[in-house]
Specification:
A hairpin with a 5-residue loop joins strand 1 and strand 2. The strands form two sheets. Strands 3-4-5 form a three-stranded antiparallel β-sheet, with no helix packed on it. A two-stranded antiparallel ribbon has the order 1-2. It is built from seven helices and five strands, in the order ααββαααβββαα. It is mostly helical. The chain has two domains: about 150 residues; about 40 residues. About 70% of the residues lie in helices and about 5% in strands.
Length: about 200
């Protein structure tokens, strides 16, 4: 089981490393990073590269607690995550190679289509980065599921802290009850009630 997490973390580090210089290289070569892409034009080139970086950071955070990650995911889910990350990394590596092979005089960036260009042989081509949208869409549900679990655990931890604070506050209140006006006492009871409801 730990092998899948090691592989996932290795892929995530690879994603961050390759993705790190991608945006600058695209801009240097004349690609318009403001153009939209995706099935619903939900990304610009720039936001796509940033989304990949954010995704890698989120998963590195989630997988940091290996035991919890293993408990919260099935083996098949981890294999699916690994497969998506592997495909994502492959797209980024291919894009990096494509960009390295481009010579400024040999191509012309398409002004209207994101990540498309015309080669010196007048062939209309696209960078492999375009395919990453598909793999991001496949992996998003896993990321959201794990983020919800982490959020629930944080809420439970916060609830425990609030409960401890309330019990200490109740002890202090009983000692100071004689000093509070009726209005202050009612306001304090209301705030305690609201805090308990929030938990």
């Amino acid at each position: 089981m730990a092998k899948s997490i090691t592989s996932i973390n290795s892929l995530l580090v690879g994603l961050k490393t390759v993705n790190n210089s991608l945006l600058i290289k695209l801009q240097q070569l004349g690609f318009n990073t403001s153009l939209s892409l995706g099935s619903e034009q939900e990304y610009t080139v720039k936001s796509l590269v940033n989304a990949i970086d954010t995704l890698a950071i989120q998963f590195l955070t989630i997988t940091a607690n290996r035991n919890q990650f293993i408990q919260r995911t099935s083996y098949n889910e981890r294999m699916e995550i690994e497969s998506c990350l592997n495909s994502l990394l492959s797209c980024l590596q291919q894009t990096k190679m494509e960009l390295a092979d481009l010579q400024v005089a040999d191509y012309k960036c398409d002004p209207n289509l994101a990540l498309f260009y015309t080669s010196e042989k007048d062939e209309h081509r696209s960078l492999k980065l375009l395919d990453t949208v598909h793999f991001i869409d496949l992996i998003k549900p896993y990321c959201r599921m794990l983020e919800m679990i982490i959020a629930q655990e944080r809420i439970h931890a916060l609830s425990a802290v609030l409960e401890t604070l309330l019990s200490k506050e109740n002890t202090a209140i009983t000692e100071k009850d004689n000093e509070l006006t009726e209005e202050q006492s009612n306001a304090l009871e209301l705030s305690q009630y609201l805090i308990r409801q929030a938990m």
